[in-house]
Amino acid sequence: MVLSPLFTLYVVIVFSFIVTSVFMFKPKGNETVHIIFFWLAVALSCLVTFINATSLPIEETNKVIAAWCGLLFSAVGIIIRMISGKTNAVANVLVMLSTVYGCAGYFLLN
Questions:
Q1: Which residues contact 55 (CB under 8 A, 6 or more apart)?
Q2: Residue 1: is its pLDDT beyond 60?
Q3: Cα 60 from chain centre
């Protein structure tokens, strides 16, 4: 069985996502650590969404648009995080949901 490079990249991203999620919700941690892992989770969600959207054929416009819509969760999470000015569980969950949406979309739409 041969694994494609894109699938291997997704496995690495999912592992990074799990580690990032654990540290994002680590209780009583340093606020700087929470901020760093929040933005790392945002970067992962952007990467997953980009890979998902660009791996689809251009003829399937509806699927490409649906793939890019995954960033809406991250955008709302960033807005909530900026408005609250501190660690916010809702913002963290929205960013995580964006990554899960991108990964699920890759496996379901491709």
A1: 6, 106, 110
A2: no
A3: 22
